[in-house]
Design brief:
The chain is an alpha/beta fold. It is built from ten helices and five strands; from the N terminus they run E-H-E-H-E-H-E-H-E-H-H-H-H-H-H. GO terms for molecular function: DNA binding.
Amino acid sequence: MTSVVIVDDQDLVRNGLRLIIGSEPDLEVVGEATDGRAERELITALDPDVVLMDVQMPGEDGLTATRRLVQDDVRARILVLTTFDLDEYVYDALTAGASGFLLKDMPGEEICAAVRQAARGADVLLAPAVTRRLVERFARPGARSPTIHPGLARLTDRELEVLRLMATGLANHEIAARLYIGETTVKTHVARIFTKLDVRDRVQAVIIAHESGVVTGPD
């Protein structure tokens, strides 16, 4: 059973998410909080698998709360929820340590699928529009000065190639088809990339790829 904590200041949103998640036999909402400060003790006590975190809340906002939870090295994977797909929210949420960025108007089945994937530490789904805007943000000339991550020097040529394809949004099976290798081999490369870059999921590896200039555009 995958345990979930919902952090959102709107009763309607929390109730809706509780109904959506609670209707799934393998998912369970174990706690709720109304702002970023209230969730700290709750998450420590409940140790959930996944946290659904709103961005805009009174008191401590979701981005600050996400950054703090990651710094505290909590086990839970954090999926940021918002009604907005603005660039600054996407970038700030992911660099804060979120494992995914989902829009509140996404279909319930997609939200549940993302929760399951986050709990497994697998490829977390981002809203397609969000992924596209994130890539376009980094693709703009002069958008950001490259910040080279020291772990990149430890990657083999093949691992760097896999990282580039990951950063353009390809899933493991798509990378396997592109490189004419098995999907199991791709998963091995991805695991080694995570270790060498000292990240815990795909999203953080992709952020490093874009910040370091490994990928300069969607192609």
